[in-house]
Amino acid sequence: MTTNLKRGGFLSNVDWIAVALYLALAVCGWFNIYAATNNADVEQTFDITQRYGMQLMWIGGSVVLGIVLMLLDYKYYHIFAYLFYALALFVVLLTLTPIGHEQNGAKAWLKLGPILIQPAEFMKIGTALAVARFMSGFSFSIYKLQDLVKVALIIGVPMFAILLQNDTGSALVYCSFLLML
Length: 181
What we know:
Elements: H1 3-8, H2 16-37, H3 51-71, H4 74-79, H5 81-94, E1 101-103, E2 106-112, E3 115-117, H6 119-135, H7 145-164, H8 168-172
Antiparallel strand pairs: 1-2, 2-3
């Protein structure tokens, strides 16, 4: 256990402004979805068969996941960065097989029962972790061409795989990784 956790506890290390901003955005987004899709025939506000009910479930799930991620020691992100990157890339490539589900012209989804999951979203997190892990190494230098080529490969391989899915919008997000450089 680290000294910071012994002194002030877990809650003293939380960025409460970021948490409040997240919750405010989530609540505003939920109100917008509720207002746009509200059906006068439905009497329940928290009906999970409606879009706003499902969105409320996703907000609740993300809050729980956020708490779990904040409780994890930061060292785990460093240790498992490449593993998470490789698993996410495998799942992105899995969508290109017959297992993948096509929606809106992009074969970028996996169907798990009634839920559609877009692995490209997890790949963005995996890419950010892998780039951060590689660039934080002692031998990394931004002035060495071979290091920059390796960073370009870490970013470019999933970007190319997502382009193969015909999901240009998600692939364009990878251009923002260039801002890190």
